[in-house]
Amino acid sequence: MSDSTHSGRFDQALRAWEKGRERYKDKLRPGTTLSGIPLKTVYTPDDVKALDLDEMPGVYPYTRGLYPDGYALTPWMQQMVFGYGTVEETRKKMERMVAEGMEGYFGHNVFNVVYDIPCMYGIDADHPEAEGNLGQCGVHMSTGDDYDELIRGWKLEHTNISMITGDNCLPALALLVAAAERRGESSTSLRGNSMNWYPRIAVQDIPSWEPKWGYALMVDLIRWAAEHAPAWNSTNIFMYGLSEAGAKPVQELAYGLAWGKSVIDAGLEAGLDPDTFVGRLGFQIGCTQNVFEEVAKFRAHRRMWAKLCKDAGCKKPASMHARVHVHTNGYILTQQQVLNNNARITLQALAAVLGGVQSIHTCSYDEATSIPTEESHRVALRTQQILMWESGVRDVADPLAGSYYVEALTDALEAKAWEIFNEIEAKGGYRKGLETGEIKRAIDNSSYEMKQNINSGKQVVVGLNKFKSDSLDKVEPFRVDMAIEDKARKRLESYKAKRDQTAVDAALEKVARACQALKDGSGTLMPALVDAARAGATNGEMMVPMRAAFGWFVSE
Amino acid sequence: MARGRVDDQSGSVEPPLRERAAQVLAGNVRVASRLISDAQDHTQAARGVLQYLYPHCGRARLIGVTGPPGVGKSTLLSALIGELRRRDLTVGVIAVDPSSPFSGGAVLGDRDRMQGFSGDSGVFIRSLATRGATGGLCAAANDAVDVLDAMGKDVVLIETVGVGQSEIEIARIANTVLLVLVPGYGDSLQAMKAGVMEIADILVVNKADSVGADGAVKDLQSMDYYQAVPEGDEMWQVPVLQTVATRGEGVAELVDEVFSQIEFAERTGWKRARQRLRRTRQFVDALTSEVRREFIDSMDQDIGTAALIRRIESMETDPYSASAEVLEKFKKAYI
Amino acid sequence: MAGKPIKVLLAKKKIDVHGRGSKLIARELRDAGMEVVYFRFGTVDDIVNAAVQEDVDVVGVSIMTSGQLHIAEKLMPKLKAAGMDDVLVIFGGTIPPVDFEPLEKLGVDRVFPAGLPGGVVAEYIRNNVGTPSPA
Predict the structure, then answer these.
(1) For the whole model, what pTM was predicted?
(2) In degrees, to the nearest 5, what angle opens at C-alpha B317 toward C-alphas B314 and B318?
């Protein structure tokens, strides 16, 4: 292991080190990362010798972070997911979260609102299949009134609204736009996120659009937003979904980048200039408790994405920024000894901060059992606030840069990720992988592998397969009052009663025609949806012609 | 009250055989479903009920759907069911998946892809695992098809994954076999057994909106596949159809073609010939497995066979001579 | 492989976006030699129809977005009406432990917390399929 380029002192230290471990070194069992990268017990300058470490934060390819001084200018956004019941309950929650100090950049508001399943599928409160699911695990918002109430009193330029929709991304945006207009503001003042995450069906067992139309709808939203809402983030590359389904960090990285590339490619194919839309693609990435592997992943991700953007023709630096929201992985939480989850969540958030991400949602300790209670939700927010205000980790940008271990790991993860990425690209890319089920199979296999490792005890999960208790914690979960269902139905009823039904019907006709135009390449869809929202159409009503036109696909 | 399937040899829970048969003929789903399970388990009672049902078989159109993994068979099947229901026909589906050779278990996921029919009493979907036995598919699937046929289903669809023996065996049950491929099928065909193309009565190129679809269709058409009707000069030119199953495109045409083939088969005696072959095979398979079971069962009890095995082991005789010896005994005893 | 395989219906809510847990259980039960019909249900009737057509020994319901009590309330009487009350019924997924007892009172045989090895579920099934149910 001696090297002529070493300093004499390092050689000395190396030899002394080797001597010191002679006795027991054969008994050592070095670890492996979750991605399967074998680790050494000690990393040295030798491990980074061949690497290019001449980088600075805020400079291409952004390994060390998007901004020159990291979090010194403004800390990450605390973008806690919430949403249940009707818009009334969710509003109250919004106000409470703001009062609890939840903040975005520069102290602005940031709301990460999750819709209920009926909304995600485009089912209004009066639909038979909505029963039992209204306002559960998400907010039911489907009418113009709902959206008016959502944005009431918030200054749009200082409010980031992320809409965690399902397949109803386009109608939801249209409804938001119409609400802003009713307040006398234009869509250019909208800040926030559309999920626009069709490609997630590669790993999620739900029916959705056919791949051809799924991508066409994504591009339609991207195109419209680029023109009418330039401050709005049009797309969320939902890598979190990949890791939640079982992807190892390196797979999450590789397939996530392939996903992103497939979106860039779709936009370019549609004739869009990369600098008009690539910068508004955002990432939502998972994070496990494997701190160093996750940090390496975030760093590798930034430089890999920057390269892909450059290759795609982006010229503006901001177009090549990988803007990342971290949603801490839920799958690692246990139902057993729930309070243990706080330690896990803390590690996850720490990794995200050390990794230099832009926004974080921390899960709550009871989320393996139900959606959070008021208390557990607050504790999750406090976890971030403690990190932000007490730990000092945000004082220095990319603090782990230069670490022999972390730099070597970043490089190793990147190399392995490129391998997987190139393999899927050679087979036609993410889109093809979605159609053939290849991505799902690869990820399912990782999930199975992990379960076997947990079952055998090879992978330890405290409280589950080691240090177990005899009984489960009987924590009273958060429950959504079923009376909410009636409230949602009544809201819909009264809304429909005061609308101009003829105008709505005409507008929906237009939507159906626009769907056709999108299909035959002669037109776009969003403008017709915005018109329909202006006329008073609901979320569910707008999805009807869309579903008729764009098919329903169940992945292999 | 006991839990799980009850061994009906006890007779205390299941009604008498004739009554069970009557319930199946009347369309009782629970009884029919139970019968399919018992038939797969080779119970005496099941055979007894099947005897009563046999004369009522032969009305349903039997259609086999096979092809390599990933071509969208289940989606196509779903579309076919939809189209058949639109024509007011009742449908039974037997979806076959392979059992794990290691654990003996199976994940049967075809039902999941045929969403949308759970509320429809005109559709009966049953998943079957192959349970790894040679000829096992044939027996279990044959019986299941007969049950659905006797129940009064207008059409019975049999689906298997096109690897291993299964697609060949399907051709021995169905009167119309659809072989589903996709553009670029070349690679996946390697995975299938040789001779698989020969079983197709209709070739279907699914995902026809993909690149290369027209080329694939032309390729297949140029190969000019045909089926010769036994006992005669008639020939069925195997047509090549295109579908986009996710959108239901080409499915109505496919069903029309299926009925054309059925009509042709009935007119030319082809259907009768195929059914004769089917029943002959079923008879031989049943006889073979009965005999085999008899011998396997009696190996321990019958001193004769045990002694033979010892002689084979000690090289006093060989397996072939031993088997000839047994056959002689058999002939003398029974003929 | 002793005897005929146990047949399990593993029903997951169609709208539940995450299917990781139920897919794993399906695979693990297969590893334990069982035949698992894995499918996604919209209504409780879907579960019952599938259970009857597939003639299963076990009905397993996987829940991620609550509704467990609602579903159990409807499922148990419908299984009985369909002549399937000899079937073993198990629930699992994102179900709060405080609901385990109420679910069992509704007739569910056992509720499993998330994350258990499939072998544990398989063992329970093997030990309880074919045994008399509580009167």
Answers:
(1) 0.87
(2) 100
